[in-house]
Amino acid sequence: MNPTRSTASITQETLTVTERPTWEQLHVWWDAMWNNPEDIRVAFSDVMPRSLPRFLESDVMLVLLTVGSDCVAGIWLHDLERVHGHVTAGWVGGWIAPPWRGVVGCAAAKLALASFQARGVQHIFAAINLANRASIALTVGQSMLGFTRVMRYPGFLPYQGTDTDCLIATWHAEDVARAKGAAARRARHVARLRAAPGGIMTTRVRQA
Ligand SMILES: CC(C)(COP(=O)(O)OP(=O)(O)OC[C@H]1O[C@@H](n2cnc3c(N)ncnc32)[C@H](O)[C@@H]1OP(=O)(O)O)[C@@H](O)C(=O)NCCC(=O)NCCS
To answer: Closest ligand 1 atom, CA of 137?
Structure first.
């Protein structure tokens, strides 16, 4: 399908939400996502696994969004928190395929959030590199995902080996205090990873 000709007619109804993607779908999404160095530099911190098997092993809840056979977006929750074994909270990560960015990408992200909520996730937080203006616009824009800004967290995550300030945001406005607590726990977790043998694997992105 040619997105440039069909985007106007794509709605939330025509996007398919895939909670159990096939290996083939996973590989298509993963390879496309890492194929754009310009995106990746500000998008994914050094803590994110760089291989698909390691990513899938890292305790994530993932949704792929498709239109026909095209992968439109991959949206996931990581650093999951559980109550009595059920996931109740997580940090959102995502990627929207370049041809589908804009209205369709936003609709896809909303469907993913609804899917997480339907599976019992009540609290969703975001930590966004301040240099990632597109992600900030999508996440906190009132006409977009409408997350609430919580704080600027200095040096929250390493990107390309540099501790980088991030915007912390929360899906539900009433979760501001909860988001601050979750951010503090996550910062301690990253500090433990850094102190572990081998530390954080800093994989520099190939220069374009
Ligand atoms: C972040 C991302 C999901 C946003 O996708 P999207 O909302 O569908 O579409 P766009 O990328 O076109 O950007 C969304 C908005 O940000 C704006 N924007 C894009 N780049 C920008 C920049 N450098 N500065 C300011 N605003 C910018 C766009 O103009 C658009 O706003 P508009 O709708 O008012 O025109 C997508 O760019 C992406 O997948 N990026 C790579 C992965 C990533 O960064 N993931 C998030 C990790 S936190």
So the answer is: 16
- Predicted structure pTM score: 0.90
Take residue 108 and report the two structure tokens written for it: 């896809």
- pLDDT tens for 34-56 read 998 888 889 999 999 999 999 99
For ligand 1, atom 42, which residue shows the shortest CA distance? 95
**Does 109 map to a domain?**
yes
CATH number where 100 lies: 3.40.630.30
Containing domain of residue 129, as a range?
Answer: 16-195
Is 144 a member of any domain?
yes
